[in-house]
Amino acid sequence: MNVKVQPVEEVKEPVEKEKRALDSPQKKLIAGGAAVGTALLIYLFATQAISQPILLLIGLGLGYTLFHARFGFTSAFRKLMAVGNGEALRSHMVMLAVAVTLFAPILAFGVSFFGGEVSGYVSPVGVSLFVGAFMFGIGMQLGGGCASGTLYAVGGGRSIMFVTLLFFIIGSTVGAYHLPFWTEEMPSFEPVTLATSTGLGYGGAWVLSLAIFGLVALITLWVEKKKRPPKQAPVPSVRGWKRILRGSWPLFAAAIILAVLNALTLMTRGSPWGVTSAFALWGSKVAMFFGIDVSSWGYWQGANAEVLQSSIFADSTTVLNLGVILGAFLASAAGGLFRFTRITLRNFMASVIGGLMLGYGARLAFGCNIGAYFGGIASFSLHGYIWGILALAGTFVALFLRPFFGLSVPKPKDTFC
Questions:
Q1: Which of 221, 333, 404, 412 could form a disulfide with 26 if both were Cys (CB 3.0 to 4.6 A apart)?
Q2: Domain contains 180
Q3: Which domain holds residue 111?
Q4: Residue range 296-301: average pLDDT?
Q5: Quick check: is 415 in a domain?
């Protein structure tokens, strides 16, 4: 496979820039971001349910954590499939292990901050899931990020990710329009959970889940022993207590924080962290503005009808997404790292294609790397595991496509970030 490999010297230069930037927090940007966050928090307190400002704060924590740890799903899958480096995927297993430990009692006993119903993300297994997850796997490797990665990269000022986000929204909207065909006309099985469908209960499902995560971690270690992949380049960091505010954070610490914040999300709004349903809402709102009868779509019938007619600030996923973007912005400014980046024709085209595949795939697969993979597995749903396997398969295919758009692919003996 002919691929464009990022030379070692090209990797060292951004690292050196980050080291210098850590000495210069962007104070004006921090002040501006804090002002916007405060204004939005006050608005939500004044106009929405009490859960909405709480979710904004949780979103801020998610975005801050994602950026400071450079916690990725796209890069984790690519490094494993390209060179056998499983360090980031092992951090996923830590995150999932903590998540199922917290989710099990919450789901079993219906623990909620506001007394509402609590339910996990459990979805059917069928053609829609297989096609959607596979598409998403390709899309995130071309678009440069997954759902959470797109949000935190936008917050960090990575210019090309604004293109990915725009077409992510378009793809998600088209996917919402087509979803009834995929769910009603294509074959599928009823949802399966390790807890209730197997008779194991939440305790047994928790034990089985931990065994699966441990097995995946062992497999990644075996693959590394066989392939001897390059090591992850260290991310520059300040020392002492300043590291909490300005980064960087260890992957495994971030994994634990993300799991805890997802559990808090579950107890606050009654469902786990999600991202892409808001994209379908935003796109559908724009379509309505231009006179398209979105309310007639099957996707916006039933419980979703009220969501479509309400303010976007009443949508908890929208509030979480805004929090993630703002949290990443504050983290990047605190580290002195917020800056817009260059867009080329080839990475523009990759972002257009990748964004469309991300949005469409997420709708078909009942979620993204957060809603389906993270939230689904944490909810003990079989579809979350299948999503991960198909997204890995899509990643493998994308390794052959990335070079056509000038995107690098890690190779053995190459240092990478």
A1: 333
A2: yes
A3: 8-405
A4: 96
A5: no
